[in-house]
Amino acid sequence: MKKLALIFSVLIAMTITTNAQWTAQTSGTTSDLTSVYFVDENIGYAVGYDGVILKTANGGTTWTSQTSGTSSVLFSVCFTSATTGYIVGGAGMILKTTDGGTSWNLLTSGTTEALRSIYFVDANTGYAVGGYTGGGVILKTTNAGSSWILQTSGVSTWLQSVYFVDANTGYAVGGESTNGKIIKTVNGGTSWTIQSIPTGYAMYSVYFADASTGVAVGNSGEILKTVNGGTNWIEQTNGTVLYSVNFTPKGTTNSGYTVGWNGLIKKSIDGGSTWTNQTSGTTKILNSVFFVQQGLTETGYIVGESGTILKTINGGGVGINENTVEKQIDIFPNPASDILTFDVENSNNQELTLNIYDVFGKLIKTEILEQNQNQINVSFLSDGIYLVEIKSKGWVGYQKLILQR
C-alpha cells in the first residue's frame, strides 16, 4: 500500500512538473532585464537597467552579478565566442569583454544616441542599431569593435532590432508608435532599403529562421511574416504588445516564440504562420527570449521586468495547444521492462511522433513512428516514472509509464 501511495504521489508531482511550462529562476536583482543570450547550454548572460549584467554557468540554476562599470541602461547582449561578447546601451554605450564577462571595457561608438540592439555575423563584423533624437542609427564594425562606422539607414525613426542571415543580407526594424519600419540590406550595410509592411505600428524585434523566412513583432501585438526574404510581409495576428521573437536553433524543432506585455508568451510550430499562447506564470513585462542549442530539446530563457527570468527545458511545456484535440492512448505492459506496445487509433495514417519525458519534464527520447508501428524498445531507460506523448498534426495523447524490472 505504501508503494502504491508513493507511486501515486510521484505521478501527481510529474503532472505538475510537466505541465509547468515555464519556471521562474532567481536572478538576484529587481532591475528590469532587457536582453538574454546564451553561449551554450550552460553559459548565459542577461543585461538590463542600472547597468546590471548577470551571468550563469550552470544553465540558469544560479546567476551572479558582473561589474559593468556603469549605472546606465543596457539594452542588448551578444557573444561571438565563449569569451568574447558585446553589450549596447544608453548614450551610445558599447561594452566588450574578452574574458567571459570578468571585465567589461567601454568602446568608442562615435554616437551619443541610445543603442538598442547588437548583432555579429562573425568574430569581426557586427552591427548596432538605435537612435532617438537623430533618427535611425546604424553602426558597423569590421575589426571586432575597435572602430565603428556610421551607416545611412534612410529612416528618421529609431531602430529597435537588427538581424543578419548572412554576411551581406540583414534586416533592422523600428519606428515609434504608429510609424513602423523594416529596412533591408543586401550589401553588408552599405545601403538600406525600406520595405513595404501592412501595418503602421512600430516593430520591436526581427528574426529569420532561414534566408527566406522571417518574423517581425511589435506594437499592438503585430506579428509579420515573410517567406521571400522581405519582398512581402504578411500580417499574422495582433493584440498585446510584443517585444522579442526567437526561434529554436537549426537541427532542433525550429519552433518560434515571441514575448511581451503582461507576461505574454506565444509559440509557433509552423514557422510563424499561427501562434498559440503559453502559460508564463507571471504578469510582468517580458522583454527578451532566447533558445539554446541542446540536442533535440527546446531549452529557452526569457527575461523581463523586475528581474524576471523564466526557463523551459521542453519548449514551454507538454501542454496542449488550443487547437489540438486530446485523445486517449493505451500503452502496455505498464509497468514495463523492455518492449512497450501502444494502441493508437490513426485511421488517417498521419505521421506520428512519440516523445518520452522524465519526471522533470526533460525530453528523453523522440521518434517518428513508421506506418503501423506499435512497439518501441525502452530497455535503455532506467527504472522510474515517465510520460509518453504521441502526437500528430491535429491531436495529442498522453499516458504515464512505469519502468520496473
In a nutshell, what does this entry contain?
The protein has 405 residues and is mainly β.
What does this structure look like?
With 405 residues, the protein is mainly beta. It has two domains: 2-14 and 322-403, Immunoglobulins (Immunoglobulin-like, Sandwich); 22-312, 7 Propeller (Methylamine Dehydrogenase, Chain H), CATH 2.130.10.10. 4% of the residues lie in helices and 44% in strands. The strands form nine sheets. It has a five-stranded mixed β-sheet with strand order 29-36-35-32-33, with helices on one face. The longest helix has 18 residues, at 2-19. It is globular and about 70 Å long. The relative contact order is 0.11.
CATH topology of the largest domain, by name, is: Methylamine Dehydrogenase, Chain H
Average pLDDT score: 88
Order of adjacent strands in the largest pleated sheet: 29-36-35-32-33
- CATH top level of the largest domain is Mainly Beta
Write down the overall geometry. globular
CATH superfamily of the largest domain: YVTN repeat-like/Quinoprotein amine dehydrogenase
Structural class: mainly beta
Distance N to C terminus: 19 Å
The value of Rg in angstroms is: 23 Å
Extract low-pLDDT stretches: 1-20, 319-323
Please give the largest β-sheet. Answer: 5 strands, mixed
